[in-house]
Predict the 3D structure of the following.
Amino acid sequence: MRDKLTPKNIILCLCICFLPLFMYGIDGIERFLSEYRIDFGWPGGDYVIRIVVRACLYMLLAVGLNIVCGFTGLLDLGYVAFYLIGGYTAGLLMQRLGVPYWFALPLAVLHGTVWGLLRGIPTLRLTGDYFAIVTFGFAELFFRVVRNEQWLIGAPNGQLRGIPSPSLFGITFNQNWHNYYHILILLIFVVFITYRLQNSRVGRAWVAIREDENAAESMGINVGRYKSLAFAVSAAIGALGGCFIAQFQVNISAPFFEFWESILILCMVVLGGMGSIRGAMIGAAILGSLGEILREVLTVLTRFTGYPELVGARYLIFGVILILLMRFRPGGLIFKKT
Amino acid sequence: MGAKKKEMMAQILEQLINGLVLGGIYALIAVGYTMVYGIIQLINFAHGEIYMFGAYIALMFILMGVPFWIAVPLSMILCAILGMLIDFVAYRPLRNAPRLSALITAIGISLALQNLARMIWSARPRQFPSESLPSFFLSEVTQTGEVINAILLPGGGILPFRDVFILLLAVVLMVVLNMLIYLTKIGKAMRACAQNAVAANLMGIKTNHVIAVTFAIGSALGAVAGIMVGLSEVVTPTMGYYKGVAAFAAAVLGGIGSISGAIFGGIVIGIAEVFGADIHSGYRIAFAYIIMILVILIRPSGLFGKSTSTRA
């Protein structure tokens, strides 16, 4: 993707930059129309922005997971561990110790990175299923710790309530459009870094490791070092996402970080085509918003049919998407891996 | 020996037996993982879900009024068909695809089946209705200290007949399975496929049939395990996920691909889990994960497995 200043791209950039303005604009139009008893079912600008923010967060996480899964070709089933570490580190620092967000953020990212490296050291020589299983076990252990260690979290089931919003110069960033620009800046930063990494010696080394580890090693690539770097960067991005969700959600609890969240992010990466940053982002945008829309649709359906278990269909659909993709388009729906 | 020490010994004995019973169940599930892995090198994540379906199907039959002794084999047969169906629909087209694709498919099936179960039977934990179970499963201690349908252990603990039954059933099924693998023609074909699927195919063994039979056997044993867990605990849609991974840990511990290893691993994980629950109940399942991670890191071939340098 060459950066071109085509009219299309400029319009896209403007749309992204002024999205909250448009959304609140529609709010205004609806308020104006409601005077004339016209209701076109607009769910509210704040609500739409919240969905967009969530989709952006998933885009961030998918780009992070893509580094390990897509570039180095190792199936990471425990990515949610870093998300969890970032979330609880930032949350605890801010809520318990009153650390400002701007200091908690780098600390949480650092903490995530450290764990990424710690997990990386013993798993360096594992490939394929065994790597997947160890990462799964690792994430599950973190999940147990958060659920059980009440002295640390302060409440059962990892409930951490009332995480303060970040503030600067007396302004508290707790509006939805604040969060939108917040995640947008983080996302642009992360995507920029990953693109630069992908097109560098490091990115080429990662892909070489994915294609053939032995050949890469014999070409003089220090496999251990490059894999560790991939784990560290990926973990840092995960922790960054966790950091954001802590202040975005205000209250977090253990079920936010269950195993299926890892699978959901994996599903996004696979949908877009493993190894493609753009693919990961588009996959995340589709599934991230699809999840929200499905939740709405299924809630409505539940109300109509009186059948309470329809909400489970959300994950059923994700599972079927994974199966069908692997069967018919293993290279991803959107971009084929080169 | 002091009274306190005696009491402790009795408690340890009781927990050891509990661990053995749980281990027998794990062994039944782990065999399904290990047999499939031995032949097509795939971690069949969906196996845990088949086991969960086994419990639910039996529960449905019993609620419909089918006697327990008929519901169990019916559930086994239906689960065997489900296992073969999964293989046929999802895994067979991917036989020559990269291993990662098959693994992701397995996760997808697991996710889909678990949520399907949640939709059909709701997330509410269920129990087998005690009135429709065989009477000797209902053990109790009467007011007078008389023990009904249970064995009195030295030291005051009781061992319900239900647990004896689970343990015996696990042992019998394992013996039958070993006979099947070492004494019959299909067993020979399975062993040949595990050694070298391509060579076996060249020798005229229909590999796809053998794999289907492997899935059927593993799934039927998984269904039994599911019913056994349903008898002693509760049936929930997530039971496959939790117990499934612990059973996979057992298969890894014993050396994946090795059936005797799976049995041994199941017992070790079962005992570790029961004693672990004594230390901290919240970390009950975590002990299985820790053992699994340590085994993979230190000795990836497991205790009984063939030693290979990498598992790609």
Notes: The longest helix of chain B spans residues 3-40. Confidence is low (pLDDT under 50) at residues 308-312 of chain B.
